[in-house]
Structures are given as C-alpha cells and as structure tokens.
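Marked as duplicate of an earlier ticket. Keeping the data here for the record.
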Amino acid sequence: MRVFDDEPALPSRRRPVLLVVFVGAAVAAAGSWFVLSRPKPAPPAETTAREAPPRSRPSPRPESAPRRETKPPATEAAGSAREPGEPTTTAPAPSRSAGVLRVRSDVPGASVFLDRKFLGNTPLEVDGLAAGSHRLNVSVDGYEGHAQAIDIGDTPADVDVRFKEVRLNASVPVIHKHGMGSCTGRLVADTSGLRYETANAGDAFTMPFADLEAFTVDYLKKSLRVKRRGGKTWNFEDPNGQPDPLFVFHRDVDKTRARLAGR
C-alpha cells in the first residue's frame, strides 16, 4: 500500500545526502540541549584583601663600580649641619669700620680735602669715614698748603695744622765742582740754614741763613751757586745733569727765608 500517492518519489541518489543532514541536525540539537541544561558553577568569593605585589629587588652593583662617597661642599664649615635640599648660603664679607677725623688749624677757616674731596673748613669734625689710608690736604690763602697721609680706624684721627709755623726739610744730591776735580754729597736745608754733607771734609760746611750772601740757581747752566758772606763760593750740579731738582730745592729754601724774614 503506498502513502502519498500524489507525492513524487525522490531519486535514489539524493536519499543518502538527506539522511546525513538529518542526523547532523539531530546531533547538534542534542549538544545544545546538553550545554544549556548543565548547571553553571558559582563564582569564587572575593578576597577581603589583595595580596601585595612582590617587591622588586634592586639589581646588585657590579663589583667593578665601587660606591662613591659624597663629601660636604667646601663652602660649608666643618661640623655644620644642613638639611638635604637646603640652599647653601655664603656669609657676607664683614664691612670695614668707619672712623672720625678732626682737623684744627692756627688759621681758622682752612679748607680740608680728603682724597681730593672737600669736607669743610676748620675747625672740622667728620664721622662715618671709611677706615684705611687716606690723603689729607689743608689749605688757606696766604700760607703754604699742608699735605699728609693719615690712617683712619676705630679711634679718631686728630690733625693740628700750623700754617704760621715755618717748616723746612729739603735736601738734594749734588756734585761740587771746584778748581781741581769735584766731590759728591748732599745739600740739606732746614730752618736753621744750609749744610753740605760730603766725605771731603775740606768742602763740607754748615751755614746759617744770616751768613748766606748769594744763593742763586742758573736753570740753563744747570747749576746752583752758594756764597758765604765775605767768604768761599760753592758751585753745585745735579749728578744726572738735570736742573729741576736744583730748581725745586732753591725755590723751597728761598720761600722759607722770606717767611723767616717777615716774622
């Protein structure tokens, strides 16, 4: 007896293929059902504390590279403590002390200069000056100026200028030309007069200004002439043949002679 007589019969070569497809579908459906029906495992409980990752150990230094020791900087004093990262400060150099200068003169109102800077007129007292060596100049009209080196320190520097006091301390090396040869020595002048210091005892002399008859300088001939009143004459020259030292000596002596005569 045939069922579905109206259904056409499949060719015999397609039947094996359909069978394989049907069996594969059945296997796949059975596998899916097995996987879905399998109970899922419960998730593990969370740990309350995480384990710390292991510390990485520093790699050992090679023996060929010894450890360098750090030394404190040279600017820090030995034994001083300084925190790391603290900036190094250098102590400022101590400032020089200041001093006081007092200047008096026997002629009031004289001008006072320190290192060519005008400070005021006498009598004068100035403070706050830098310590050390300075050059002091004091001058007033009608008198010879006063100049000297002074040191200013912790104690006041006192200077008393005597313009009315006649001072003279001059000297010059000379050659004495005489009839037979010459001799060398030094011509010296102070407020008491002239003297010629030489190893030749016959030419040496000491002469008060009152006994001085002639005292002249010839700049062109580069000579200085000294004559004792009613006595001997000396002609002096500069050892280096220069007229200027003789001219300056003559000027200073003549100025002092005029001041002494005007007393």
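See parent ticket for discussion. Residues 15-37 form the longest helix (23 residues).
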